[in-house]
Amino acid sequence: MCDDFTISMPRIGDKAPEFTAVSTQGNINFPTDFKGSWVIFFSHPADFTPVCTSEFMTFATLEKKFNQANCKLVGLSVDGLYSHIAWLRTIKEKIEYKGMKNVEVNFPLIEDITMEVAKKYGMIQPGESSTKAVRAVFFIDPNGIIRAIIYYPLSLGRNFEELYRVLIGLQTADAFSVALPADWQPGDDVIVPPAGSCGAAKERMEGKQHDVKCYDWFFCTRKLPKEELEKNILKK
Ligand code: BEZ
């Protein structure tokens, strides 16, 4: 049997599915309204729930840092607009958590009562819940292409340092034509594209390529200092 839930799982490299929606910051035409910016489009299971509240407070606190990296945040749940508004007001007026208080969520939170958008983005995963979105995170580039996707279950809050690392990693890979090794952090060495010929492989192994360190002919790194990233990506 094939139902609506299984047919729509956007993949890395796909164009972000288009939609129009109502949000806490007005109407949204997605992804057109965000052309030229990176977007983290994420879902949460439900308003007025504890894990989601901790996530929204964290994301709102970090919003400026994401914006400085040319990235806008857009949230979604299958709740309605008035629930969203009431929840965000409660967060600002009443919740103090881990040193965060008086937190205002200024990024748009989309209402999706019909689940139309959530289904398009594979955010409803019936094995987990057929009435709530999972914690999906889509990284969409300035041309509207999906570049990374992470899904978390209902019970596990996201790691926002990792979301920032993924964003900066994608931007770094694009800007410097490099790849990034396990656990890469800004300032760490980066992986240079593989040698494209036997001659280049030999040169690398002979240490003839300045600034390139090879562990073997197919695995070579170079330095990419944080200051160089700061000039291009991590703008203060
Ligand atoms: C939460 O955000 O706390 C939550 C939401 C839905 C199911 C379980 C937990």
General description of the model:
- There is one protein chain.
- With 236 residues, the protein is an alpha+beta fold.
- It has 2 domains: 157 residues, Glutaredoxin; 56 residues, 2-Layer Sandwich (Antioxidant, Horf6, Chain A, domain 2).
- 31% of the residues lie in helices and 21% in strands.
- The chain has 7 helices and 10 strands.
- It has a 5-stranded mixed beta sheet with strand order 5-4-3-6-7, with helices on one face. The chain has a 3-stranded antiparallel beta sheet with strand order 8-10-9, with no helix packed on it.
- The longest helix is centred in the first third of the chain and has 19 residues.
- The protein is elongated.
- The site of benzoic acid has 9 residues, from helix 2.
